[in-house]
Write a structure and sequence with these properties.
Elements lengths: L14 E8 L9 E9 L10 E4 L4 H5 L3 H10 L1 H7 L4 H15 L7 E4 L2 H11 L1 H6 L4 E3 L4
Parallel strand pairs: 1-4, 4-5
Antiparallel strand pairs: 1-2, 2-3
Length: 145
């Protein structure tokens, strides 16, 4: 795979593709477990291979997951990975923001994009607001791309 491997400006139409896994869908009760990020220009050319972090989540929070999340994240190994992750939510937020700034140094130039991105955006605004604050106010569901 080839990458464009250069910083993007507003003119490039940068898109920050984010996918989060959560303990459920209630932003007041549930937590982000994992975040993956890819950055492209407006032509969907990747800058690099992207990043992914698993967030340390305490056992009490994981034990409160509903049936679907318990089964899905248990079978995938994500639940166990969250228990042993070396990264706190704050550390992950800092690393993700640094990654975005590396490729999109201008604040509010990058547009948040992804599948079912609205829910991810709600969780990010609550748990990692510094990421949302760096991005453009618009967001782009993948079905629009």
């Amino acid at each position: 795979m080839s990458y464009i491997s250069r910083q993007l400006t507003l003119a490039d139409g940068p898109m920050v593709w984010i996918d989060c896994e959560m303990t459920g869908l209630d932003p007041d009760e549930d937590k982000i477990m994992e975040i993956a990020v890819l950055i492209t220009n407006g032509n969907l050319e990747l800058v690099d291979e992207g990043i992914e972090y698993i967030v340390r989540v305490d056992k009490r929070q994981l034990d409160r997951m509903g049936e679907w999340c318990t089964k899905q994240h248990g079978e995938s190994g994500l639940t166990e990975a969250c228990l042993s992750s070396p990264f706190t939510k704050e550390q992950v937020a800092k690393k993700v923001l640094a990654y975005i700034k590396k490729w999109i140094p201008q604040q509010r130039a990058g547009v948040l994009a992804g599948n079912s991105i609205h829910m991810d955006r709600v969780f990010l605004a609550k748990e990692m607001p510094e990421i949302i604050d760096w991005l453009h106010y618009r967001y782009e569901p993948s079905c629009n791309v």
